[in-house]
């Protein structure tokens, strides 16, 4: 029987209604009584509100758990996707850093804990967040969103370990009679993952939903509404006693999961430590084997404990041809998808000169340019990577005099982008978005950043 790792996370976001603080405290007490580690993703404004309200009791208990970030203002417009949709990747990353950085810093200061994971508010996902999060030291993205998917398994994207839309995502509804069905569903999800190194169950709640029958933001910020704080309204509350009754039911559910000897609750930091991808420099034989497998289709490639994204493949081929140590360095995808010029072949000397040029940077991390200048031609990074693989297969030796040699330009395709959805109708995912809100730019950039995607690898327990 495969062991089961449970990630129990809470989006702590309702900074309007102080009543939600009591639910947060009660949930912390419930977990502490069972020795269970929770993952609490707080909105910056919520953390500041806890500080202003003198809730040292809550902050002290949070110190025993893992802290994540859930943006600074959550549903106040413009939300993340709204303000990033018009911007490019590099420009959008800087804007995310500018708007959300203070909340991240406040959260760390107020809780006294490192902020190690992130999840978007509602459905407000955007790829530009990733380099900023990585710069801040965030390692893991944990939430529920299906713009980028990987068959329900953990994956690397944007430099972060992503635990989004996993097979084992579940919650027990806060209605009478839900406990037995939740137990059954938990067992089903465990059984479904018996062939994996270990099962992953991702359980989530919002403290505010134990107090109110409606979400705090839905009654105030739906369909693009942005009323001033003087006009914020309170959602309908649950009947007296229901908050503790449903929190007790959650405790009963946790007790059931702990009755299984194969279950352990962990945080995302421990989850990252379980990942075993080999990031050391590749041997010459490994480089050749990966180059042999590229052809004209470019995606991630795996071999044992090695798994290289498309960007890492470029980095390895580039280093190998320049006579440098072939390290699988993460490279962000380009700003735009542009075609290569209509040329049949390129000069090897020009090719090597092109890859010697420094790469652009985004928040200090290397990024692929839209195109490389190879002699008199412009070549996009997909075609260039496939051509570098062909050059390595031909037996090219670093430093050799290839000034006169030419090589056919391989026209490639980025197959990794198959993990990105084409769906643009995001208003059906979250009531907060304005009506008819469209995100074609976000979708296009999500595909370009699949240069960074690859599966996470784990050893059998």
UniProtKB/TrEMBL annotation:
<dbReference type="GO" id="GO:0005975">
    <property type="term" value="P:carbohydrate metabolic process"/>
</dbReference>
<dbReference type="InterPro" id="IPR011330">
    <property type="entry name" value="Glyco_hydro/deAcase_b/a-brl"/>
</dbReference>
<protein>
    <recommendedName>
        <fullName>NodB homology domain-containing protein</fullName>
    </recommendedName>
</protein>
């Amino acid at each position: 029987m495969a062991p089961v790792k449970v990630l129990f996370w809470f989006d702590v976001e309702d900074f309007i209604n102080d009543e939600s603080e009591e639910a947060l405290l009660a949930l912390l007490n419930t977990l502490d009584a069972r020795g269970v580690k929770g993952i609490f993703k707080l909105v910056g404004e919520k953390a500041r509100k806890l500080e202003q309200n003198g809730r040292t009791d809550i902050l002290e208990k949070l110190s025993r758990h893992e802290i994540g970030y859930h943006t600074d203002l959550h549903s106040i417009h413009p939300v993340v996707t709204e303000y990033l949709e018009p911007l490019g990747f590099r420009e959008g990353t800087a804007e995310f850093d500018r708007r959300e950085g203070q909340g991240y810093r406040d959260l760390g200061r107020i809780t006294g804990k490192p902020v190690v994971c992130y999840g978007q508010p509602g459905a407000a996902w955007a790829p530009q967040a990733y380099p900023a999060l990585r710069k801040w030291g965030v390692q893991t993205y944990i939430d529920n969103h299906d713009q980028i998917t990987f068959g329900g398994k953990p994956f690397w994207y944007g430099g972060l370990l992503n635990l989004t839309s996993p097979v084992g995502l579940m919650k027990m509804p806060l209605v009478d009679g839900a406990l037995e069905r939740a137990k059954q569903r938990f067992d089903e999800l465990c059984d479904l993952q018996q062939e994996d190194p270990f099962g992953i169950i991702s359980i989530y709640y919002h403290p505010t939903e134990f107090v109110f029958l409606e979400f705090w933001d839905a009654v105030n910020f739906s369909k693009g509404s942005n009323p001033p704080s003087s006009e914020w309204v309170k959602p309908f509350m649950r009947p007296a006693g229901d908050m503790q009754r449903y929190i007790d039911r959650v405790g009963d559910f946790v007790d059931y999961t702990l009755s299984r000897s194969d279950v352990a609750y962990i945080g995302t930091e421990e989850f990252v430590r379980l990942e075993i991808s080999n990031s050391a420099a590749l041997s010459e034989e490994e480089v050749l084997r990966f180059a042999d497998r590229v052809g004209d289709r470019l995606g991630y490639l795996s071999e044992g404990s090695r798994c290289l994204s498309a960007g890492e493949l470029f980095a390895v081929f580039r280093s190998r041809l320049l006579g440098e140590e072939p390290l699988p360095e993460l490279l962000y995808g380009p700003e735009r998808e542009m075609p290569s010029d209509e040329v049949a072949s390129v000069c090897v000397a020009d090719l090597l000169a092109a890859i010697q040029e420094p790469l652009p940077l985004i928040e200090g991390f290397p990024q692929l340019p839209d195109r490389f200048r190879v002699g008199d031609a412009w070549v996009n990074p997909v075609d260039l990577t496939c051509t570098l693989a062909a050059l390595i297969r031909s037996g090219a030796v670093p430093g050799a005099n290839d000034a006169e040699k030419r090589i056919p330009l391989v026209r490639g395709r980025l197959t990794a982008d198959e993990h990105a959805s084409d769906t643009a109708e995001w208003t059906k995912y979250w009531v907060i978005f304005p009506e008819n809100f469209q995100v074609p730019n976000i979708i296009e950039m999500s595909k370009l950043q699949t240069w960074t995607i690859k599966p996470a690898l784990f050893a059998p327990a």
